[in-house]
Amino acid sequence: MPLRRRVLQLFKTLHRTRQEVFRDDGEALQAARQKINEEFKKHRAEMSSERVHELMKHGADVEVFLRTSVVQAVHTDNNRLLLRPRPSVFQENVPYCDTPPQKT
Asked: What pTM does this model have?
């Protein structure tokens, strides 16, 4: 797939992720939209294929971070927040073991 097409695909993926992650939060949606557009415009004239690949890797890492680590919280009343996690945020719960396994 041509490089230009992959860059556009990443741009669209970031915007879709932004819409999912910040659903119902107009300020966060707008701020994320501006930041995504700003970063892509800033590097629009980049011609080095190696640098473009680095920037795409960074963009893909940001998309994964947003999708898997950001959780929305809504103020419900005094000193209370309602968390609204998405299914993609949940990870496998691995039990913690205090004591190291015994060598036999």
From this structure: 0.78
Q: State residue 102 phi and psi, 5-degree precision.
A: -75, 135
Chain centre distance of CA 100: 34
CA 42 to chain CA centroid, Å, is: 19
Three-state DSSP class for residue 78: coil
- Residue 69 to residue 21: CA distance in whole angstroms: 10
Q: How far apart are the first and last CA of the chain?
A: 53
H or E segment and range at residue 77: strand 72-77
DSSP 8-state symbol, 95? P
- The tens-digit pLDDT sequence of the chain (104 residues) is 788 899 999 999 999 999 999 988 899 999 999 999 999 999 999 899 999 999 999 999 999 999 888 888 888 888 898 888 888 777 777 677 777 777 76
Element (H, E) at 82: strand 80-84
